[in-house]
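It is worth pausing here to work through a concrete case rather than discussing structure prediction in the abstract. The textbook approach is simple: state the sequence, then state the predicted structure, then interpret. We follow exactly that order.
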Amino acid sequence: MKEWALVTGGSRNIGAGIARRLRLDGFNVVVASRTPPEHEDFDDYIAVDFLEPAAAAAAIKAAIGDRAVTRFVHNAAITNEDLTVEVSMDTILRIYTVNTMAFMALSQVVIPIMQRERVGRIVVIGSRAGLGKVRRSAYAASKSALNGLVRTMALELGGDGITVNCVGPGPIETSMFRNSTTPGSQDYINLNKGVPVGYVGEPADIAHAVSFFMSDGARFCTGQTIFICGGTSVAFVDPNRPDVDHRFSKGFPSAGTR
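Step two, the predicted structure:
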């Protein structure tokens, strides 16, 4: 029986990249999101709103039925751009609901399936912003909360053959990123040059890390958070440094318009 992977927020951007990679890895992929997928790399789609975690979990449980969902990636997330003294309690609640509470609610759906199948891989998408970022207080808090949750779940589920890990993206080319940093602008160019490796990442970079954690080869790795961030979890570097020139830099600053 072919195993299934559940990917939330898999309609586009990082989620689409993860869905694509997991299908290449041989899994059937079910995408659960508020909007239909903007790609064809999925085998089933469940329309849910993660602002209602209990309802979303119930809908997903009913839709997957007796399928062997042994892989689960919670990628769905929302963010904010408010200073700590400005952010409303409603905004904080909304962000925690989607980013953190929905992950817990859906984990309660898939864990019994994984225990039945005697194997499971759970990955939640965190963020380098969880280490701190101006105007992202609620978002950063919700993402950093995942680290403690992942470590606790890893302790609870290791004996069932279930691993639980977190992948924390840094700056990645997505529609959300482009909405806040216009490609080709000076801010975008400076950001690219400030990333230690010299460029902003792509969804495939995150999908590659998720693919490892989803694999049987990652059986001995659990409770971990890995930042796929071009080095920005350590620090940003001086954007006035000389242009980088290596195999992956693609001739920056042309990367500022890609």
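Step three, interpretation. Residues 4-182+200-236 form a domain with the Rossmann fold fold (CATH 3.40.50.720). DSSP finds seven helices and seven strands in the chain.
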